[in-house]
Amino acid sequence: MMKKSFFCFAEKIYDVVFHLPPFIIINLLSSLLISKEVDEMSYRHCSSCGRRLHRDSYSKTQWTKPVGISRCYACVESGNARNSNNSDLESQSARRNNATRATFTQHALSYPFAEGGFRYVAKGKYTVGERAGEECVCKWFKSGHVLEESFFTLDIQAADKALHIVKEWNSRNFINRKVMVNVPQVWTFMEGGAAHLVGKKVLQEPFIQHYTKFNSNSGWADDSTPWPRVMQALSHFSYHITSGQFVLCDLQGGIYSNAVVLTDPVILSRSKRFGVTDLGPQGISSFFSNHVCNEFCKSDWSMPNDRTRYFRPQQGTSMIATGANRHVPTRSSRTNLY
After folding, report:
1. Using an 8 Å Cβ cutoff, are 170 and 179 in contact?
2. pTM of the entire structure?
3. Which of 8, 32, 79, 151 has its Cα between 20 and 30 A from that of 212?
4. What pLDDT, in 10s, does the model give residues 168-206?
């Protein structure tokens, strides 16, 4: 009897809905869709813990910050509790000039020991500051590149974003070694150096030994030994921790006995905000088209739905026209990084 009553009730509802004017039905459906969309907009991933949480889990200040930067109440509170350790994490993640002056020989400036697609690299020594006597490098743009100021700005921004991601990585103690980022500064050549460089702005940073390329911004990756595989995991982690907004890649630098130090990183972004090496959403898809998770990746880390290969993987840098504390085997011959 109850079952029959239920079907009679359902038939009456159907009859009422069926005879409603079309514009009312459309409005009802639109309201349902809008409600679902609004509900989706009320959730986002915390940039620290990676959990997808409702806006009630964020303070008003954190919710107004962009996706990939905002943090939930729990992470903010735990972060405040860790403030005393922030300076340690900073020193373990950032490798800075800690100097105010350096010198370069005429030969070093006339015959740079390295060059990229649009700039030269020369080696010199710091003369004033904590790093006095240590080797350093300066990087300047080749002739014909008239947008030096914007390139410098984007280099600094990319390094800052890379440092933010690396600090997040180091804070989780996935491995028993630290990853560091060379943090460049814009310096100006004074008189006494090469005449053609006097007054020219350069990027200045500490010199890196044991230089190695780990992956590129187009999807090429080295996974032959543990440290390169750590770097592939770091790139994957960068996508996950920023809620799919960024990928830290084109990782290259030096392997030391106690750390890896990176330089000239590339940040791929959804909005292509980091210049000619930022290949945008297609670059992110291309990177993951070739990514193979390894023992340093976590199974719950997110990946993009679109993993189409839009760019051919190559070792060089591509440019657009304008949980557990795992052990990382390291060669005993590697020197310590100071």
Report:
1. yes
2. 0.73
3. 151
4. 999 999 999 999 999 999 999 887 667 778 888 899 999
